[in-house]
Amino acid sequence: MNPDEPPARPLLTVEELALSRGERRLFDAVGFSLEPGHLLLLRGPNGAGKSSLLLTLAGLLRPEAGRIVWPGDEPTPLHLLAHLPGVKTRLTLAENLDFWRSVNGQTGLLAEDALETVGLGGLGALDAGYLSAGQTKRLALARLLVTERLIWLLDEPTASLDAAGDMLVERLVAERLRTGGAVIAATHDDIGGATGTLTLGGAR
Amino acid sequence: MTDTATQLKKPNWFSRLAHPGAFMSWSRPALWPLGLVTSVVFAIGLWFAFFNSPADYQMGETVRIMYIHVPNAWLSQFVYGIMVVASLGTLVWRHPLADVAAKSAAPLGATFTAMALFSGALWGRPTWGTFWEWDGRMTSTLILLFIYLGIIALWRAFDDQLRAARIVAVVTLVGALDIPVIKFSVDWWNTLHQPASIITPTGPKMPPSLLTPLFTMMIAFTLLFVLLHLVSMRTEILGRRAETLGRQAAAKLATVGAA
Amino acid sequence: MSAVFAVIGRELRLATRTGGDALTLVLFFVMVGAVVPFAIGPDRTLLAKLAPGLIWIAAFLSMLLGLDRLFRADEDDGSLLLFRHAAIPLEAVVAAKVLAHWLLSAVPLIVATPLLAVLLALDMPSWGRTVLALLIGTPALTAFGAIGAAVTVSLKRGGLLAPVLILPLCIPVLIFGVALVAAPDGSNAALLFLAALSLVSVAFCPFAAALALRVGSE
To answer: CA of B195 to nearest chain A CA: how many angstroms apart?
Structure first.
């Protein structure tokens, strides 16, 4: 590190974030800073609010209190990998990926290359409805590769995946971190290379 | 740098009064006096309407139904206006009392609209010969009733009433923009199909002897709405509190059981 | 812009692949019209007189019953969530979906009207006006329908609630639509009103529907 270089600006800073769903207060006073190269693991029992925190960071839920601070004027575009895969079963794998590439920007891998990377190489012309749960998850991961976005929010990325799939997730996350991005992953498993852990849903 | 922040604003007099807790405390002592005033104004209005005003030269005694029909028709629109303001309160200011106000107003609005239709039909029978004549105003009122009922159904379809409030607010506002269009189109449709003008019960000029009881009854009904609305809002807030307590009790039992 | 075309293309592709039921709606439309003579008798003069209104009601019901498919599938498989943090605004996505839905629902209906014209003894000039009226009026039905669909998408058993909500709001479309066909002296005014209604509702509905989608999932 060049000592004259200013420290890297955080990609995302959260201060005193609080959220309720319905009448239930999910979490209070959550704060952290996400620097490039950081992997933050979200831990906590089911229903603790891990998914809701990710949705809030993606701008899909309104926090009750607190701030999310972005480096620019607008929130930085990010990738959200949620529970539901967002895969259209009547389209082919390639069509699924090409669609999101057209909508979000052609800044990442081509569809075939993304499929190759996640282990679905050569299946581009197959209807997505034929995929197993694990393969569908891989396709969902491939979506993160066709458009380049610095921040990844992953909700149980290893769900439905076997051991090889877990390693794929680790590889993809490591690559994202190496190239200056950051990842927040809500997971019961372990993903190597974590730089921090945030546990939600402590004893009430 | 951007941030999504919730800032604390200094509470003004409205915020202080409209805070749910504050609302509960000032609305309780207000109910009895309000009820009293409402009853008195009703008594005066009914006396004027039935005993101290002349019969209409064309319609005879049946004109007295107007003193029921017109206030209800006015309220059917006024209450929708209240719902529109409440919807803005929910969507724009996220005011906690706004959704309670909107939810409580809907059944009241529907009832007043139904009363307007019913009294209009009763009035129509001796005047026009039929219970229902597809004239512009009654038809628009019928459509308004459908809109009210749809909104009530929407409230009931959601488990999460906070989410329901926001959705209903969007529908209410869309309805508010569309209702003038509906009125215009229905009137236009009416002139297409019934070129002969129907004697509308409320003529263009009303003598003062009819106006006084009419205004008194309008005020009486409006006060009645305010009273019922406050009671309904209190009931809704208490109901939600009871639900929260029930849920907390269940959660406590769950942790005790698990321990 | 190409993103919007991508959305439209995706909707069209999804509807026309196997498993899509684009034609069921048209079938419903024709059947509603065909069933009418069983209810009111086969008197051709009577049928011809009622035909414009009957065709409009059939179109109405078909559009209302089909509006759930605007957002339901995307909500159920998680695609709606992806649209909500996509690079194009949600309003643009809604506008694209509304256009695609109109192409998939209203245009087949219009193409099927000759069948109903024959069944209901509608004469040629009236049929021509009916096609014009449906062309101008169905965008408004789609626009209002999109708002209804957006409002009820988060309900598991939305069912008939969206049609019940939207039907009163669409009554002006019915009034002007039928008048365009059947009213001798109101026809031109009806054309203008209907066109204005469609323009305004189509311009406005992406914002209302996107708002409903956002607040409905918070």
So the answer is: 54
